[in-house]
């Protein structure tokens, strides 16, 4: 079996608050294979972005990584724990191995220096290229994202939102990283541009073969775009399955609830059912399953014991007590005319 | 270019407005300077003598609008009249000597404190909460809170009077003929300027430090700073090209405002160190009711204020590409 590009093992990230430490990411483990698109979905505040920042070690105090391993496969296929790298090693690792497209890529470019410098500084930092070679590389990257190279000397405000997003993607590609983290890369864009950007990313992935960690709360978008999907709830990964499986045959009531909260683009019209209740307060965690208060199928065992994420069938994982192979909850039955 | 012309015409209107105020205020005050001048005269003051003096000093009789146009004309032709106090020296001569010294003292002090304050602010923000930040940032504010009179007198008392390290007054050694090509004279000027410069700078550093520190802290949360870190760039490049480069934009306005203010406003320092700048001239003019010099002085200060504002406008366009049009 080939080793995955990145293996996250029991990652924990805590936030220090006045009311005590809050574990925003709790024992999360998942793998992303080479060239795979792994989607991470969940409500706001469930820890998706915290994971993204922790992988790049860009989390800011009061957040700190309190445990776990992040194993990254290097060129020789050896696994290296990113969390053990020194700060100096980490700055070299960043962008050359793993780059990131930020949530609001609209603001991710420095407004007062021209685009070309924002390409060349990172290229020259990590390679031995001269300024001239770095500019050549930048021109090449602009062409990859369909922007004319003569715009290289322009400033960020002279580009449209979609173009800025493509610029950020081009910068993310600059050093041919093995993994690109995309933290809601299209949230700020309208649906037409969104589609254009995602198609571009997909084509680039096919061409260069990098892996993607794709984070969004737009589930329908994610199902279309990802190979596998992990669903998070209050800092825990509660279900992992292939994109095809996860909404059709969910093994966790929360996933089931999520899938009923989104309209289908192609299927028949159906009534949208939300998930009652509010996300869990991380300062007041009950014993047992974290989803118990909002779950429609809650049983006695859910209130007493927490279940780890386990393989139900063929790599489809869930942490629900009631999940049994072959007996998924299925899609919502309610349909209206 | 269009931008430049538009700004320039705006500043011209502002100048006319300031000149109008300058015209109204002395005339609204009770008494007139010529009568004041002869108040203590021991000789007989005939009406002819007063009339002759008035004409010489430019106080024309006639309807107000006529006086106003004559005044505006004199402003535009830069004919500021003759000083009452230093008769028969012209206002231009009196101010001309002082402007250079004020420009030197205030300009150097503001630029020095801006540079030092901003650099300290950058480091305080980057290492927010560190020992450096917790000592230097409030420390500079405490120094700034002490009135300038106190700081300047302390400096004078300690370093000039007690330790005798520095001269107590004036811009160069008395009796020396200014020779700007001579190295010895320049050294003498620097030696005399050291304490006034320190006194003028020390109270300003805190303001620039805090402004820069706060701008920086606001900016450090921006996505482009996080992305710069994510790119693995060196700390120097992130601090200076990404954070400070953006944080200094509001500080540039503060800098030009301080420059404009400081030219006429180093009065306390100039008086304590008996420095021959505009501040000293202003004080003497007020004491002597030398309206001509006062008016001229206010006009010069207005001009400097407008000039540095214009400079800030230009600098802003240079520093912030978002303000450039039609690129």
Verbal overview:
The complex is a heterodimer of chains A (337) and B (327). Chain A is globular and about 70 Å long. Helix content of chain A is 28%, strand content 23%. In chain A, the strands form 2 sheets. Chain A has an 8-stranded mixed sheet with strand order 6-7-8-3-9-10-12-11, sandwiched between helices. A 4-stranded antiparallel sheet of chain A has the order 2-1-4-5. Chain A has helices spanning 48-55, 87-93, 115-126, 131-144, 161-173, 191-208, 219-225, 243-248, 253-260; strands at residues 6-17, 20-32, 37-41, 63-73, 79-81, 98-101, 179-183, 211-215, 228-233, 236-242, 310-313, 316-318. In chain A, α5 runs parallel beside α6. Chain A starts with 5 loop residues before the first strand and ends in a 19-residue tail after the last strand. By secondary structure, chain A is of the alpha/beta class. Chain A folds into 2 domains: 6-226, Rossmann fold (3-Layer(aba) Sandwich), CATH 3.40.50; 250-318, no CATH class. Chain A contains 9 helices and 12 strands. By secondary structure, chain B is mostly helical. Chain B has 2 domains: 2-76, no CATH class; 97-323, MetI-like (MetI-like fold, Orthogonal Bundle). Chain B has helices spanning 2-28, 33-38, 47-57, 64-76, 91-126, 131-145, 148-162, 183-220, 223-230, 235-265, 267-272, 278-287, 291-319.
């Amino acid at each position: 079996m080939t080793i995955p590009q990145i293996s996250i093992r029991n990652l924990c990230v805590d936030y220090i608050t006045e009311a005590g430490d809050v574990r925003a990411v709790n024992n999360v483990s998942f793998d992303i294979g080479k060239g795979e698109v792994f989607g991470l979905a969940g409500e706001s505040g469930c820890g998706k972005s915290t994971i993204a920042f922790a992988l790049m070690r860009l989390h800011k105090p009061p957040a700190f990584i309190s445990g776990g391993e992040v194993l990254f496969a290097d060129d020789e296929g050896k696994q290296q724990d990113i969390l053990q790298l020194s700060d100096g090693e980490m700055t070299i690792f960043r962008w050359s191995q793993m780059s990131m497209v930020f949530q609001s890529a609209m603001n991710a470019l420095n407004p007062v220096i021209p685009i070309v410098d924002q390409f060349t500084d990172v290229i020259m930092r990590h390679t031995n290229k001269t300024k001239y070679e770095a500019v050549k590389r930048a021109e090449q990257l602009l062409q990859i994202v369909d922007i004319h190279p003569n715009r290289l000397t322009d400033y960020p405000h002279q580009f449209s939102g979609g173009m800025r997003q493509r610029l950020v993607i081009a910068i993310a590609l600059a050093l041919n990283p093995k993994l690109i983290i995309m933290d809601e890369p299209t949230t700020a864009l309208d649906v037409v541009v969104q589609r254009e950007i995602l198609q571009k990313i997909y084509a680039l992935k096919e061409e260069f073969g990098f892996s993607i960690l794709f984070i969004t709360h737009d589930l329908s978008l994610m199902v279309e775009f990802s190979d596998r999907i992990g669903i998070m709830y209050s800092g825990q990964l509660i279900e992992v399955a292939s994109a095809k499986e996860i909404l059709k045959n969910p093994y966790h009531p929360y996933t089931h609830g999520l899938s009923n909260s989104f309209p289908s683009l192609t299927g028949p019209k159906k009534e949208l059912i939300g998930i009652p209740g509010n996300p869990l307060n991380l300062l007041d965690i009950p014993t047992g399953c974290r989803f118990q208060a909002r779950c429609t199928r809650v049983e006695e065992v859910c209130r007493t014991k927490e279940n780890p994420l386990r393989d139900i069938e063929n790599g489809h994982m869930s942490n629900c007590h009631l999940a049994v192979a072959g007996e998924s909850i299925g899609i919502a039955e309610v349909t209206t005319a | 270019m269009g931008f430049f012309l538009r700004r320039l015409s705006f500043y011209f209107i502002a100048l006319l407005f300031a000149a109008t105020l300058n015209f109204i205020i002395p005339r609204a005050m009770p008494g007139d300077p010529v009568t004041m001048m002869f108040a203590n005269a021991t000789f007989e003051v005939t009406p002819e003598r007063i009339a002759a003096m008035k004409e010489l000093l430019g106080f024309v009789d006639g309807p107000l609008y006529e006086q106003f146009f004559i005044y505006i004309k004199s402003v535009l032709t830069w004919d500021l009249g003759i000083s009452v106090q230093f008769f028969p020296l012209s206002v231009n001569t009196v101010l001309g000597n002082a402007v250079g010294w004020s420009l030197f003292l205030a300009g150097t002090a503001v630029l020095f404190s801006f540079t030092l304050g901003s650099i300290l602010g950058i480091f305080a923000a980057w290492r927010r909460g560190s020992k450096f930040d917790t000592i230097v940032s409030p420390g500079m504010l405490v120094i700034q809170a002490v009135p300038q009179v106190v700081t300047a007198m302390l400096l004078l008392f300690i370093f000039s009077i007690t330790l005798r390290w520095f001269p107590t007054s004036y811009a160069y050694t008395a009796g020396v003929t200014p020779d700007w090509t001579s190295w010895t004279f320049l050294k003498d000027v620097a030696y005399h300027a050291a304490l006034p410069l320190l006194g003028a700078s020390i109270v300003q550093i805190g303001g620039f430090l805090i402004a820069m520190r706060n701008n920086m802290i606001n900016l450090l949360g921006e996505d482009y700073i996080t992305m710069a870190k994510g790119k693995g760039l060196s700390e120097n490049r992130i601090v200076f090209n990404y954070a400070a480069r953006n944080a200094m934009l509001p500080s540039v306005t503060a800098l030009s405002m301080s420059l404009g203010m400081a030219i006429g406003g180093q009065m306390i320092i100039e008086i304590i160190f008996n420095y021959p700048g505009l501040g000293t001239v202003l004080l003497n003019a007020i004491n002597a009711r030398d309206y001509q010099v006062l008016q001229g002085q206010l006009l010069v200060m207005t001009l400097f204020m407008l000039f540095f504002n214009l400079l800030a406008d230009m600098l802003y366009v240079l520093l912030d590409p978002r303000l450039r049009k039609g690129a």
